[in-house]
Specification:
It is a single chain. This protein is α/β, with parallel strands linked by helices and 133 residues long. It has a four-stranded mixed sheet with strand order 1-2-4-3. Helix 4 packs across helix 5. The relative contact order is 0.18. The protein binds zinc ion.
Length: 133
């Protein structure tokens, strides 16, 4: 799966810091490399590599994007959410971490192999399984 990360330089830096965790362990990898590594571990869990492109939008408030997508705020106070139909992940960089990214990537990857609708709870269970490193 091709992953395109969009956001301001500041939001990309904040997100990179949150993915790196402690400054002591700060890796020299780029944001793209780290995100693709996390995606790789999600694909291993799902068992297949999804096709197509996933867009990751980095912001400091998800609500304007929710209003644009849904016409209202659907997820109050969320750190991140995935739009399955748009194959997009929207992340509040101030409230995010590796687990949250893996969780949302799990939703996108799982959805890409479904040929019918599954229940919310099954989707959520798979995404939670993808969180574990
Ligand atoms: Zn979820």
């Amino acid at each position: 799966m091709n992953i395109v990360i969009q956001g301001s330089i500041e939001n990309k830096e904040t997100f990179l810091d949150s993915l790196n965790g402690s400054w002591f362990w700060k890796s020299k990898q780029s944001l793209e490399q780290i995100v693709n590594d996390i995606a790789g571990s999600v694909y291993v869990k799902i068992g297949r590599i999804p096709k197509g492109t996933c867009h990751i939008f980095l912001c400091d408030d998800t609500e304007p994007i929710q209003r644009k997508y849904y016409g209202k705020v659907v997820h109050k106070d969320v750190s991140a959410f995935a739009s399955l139909s748009r194959k997009a992940i929207i992340i509040n960089v101030n409230r995010s971490n590796k687990k949250i990214l893996a969780h949302e990537l799990g939703h996108i990857a799982f959805e890409s192999f479904l040929n019918r609708k599954v229940g919310y709870h099954l989707h959520e269970m798979v995404a939670q399984y993808c969180e574990e490193s």
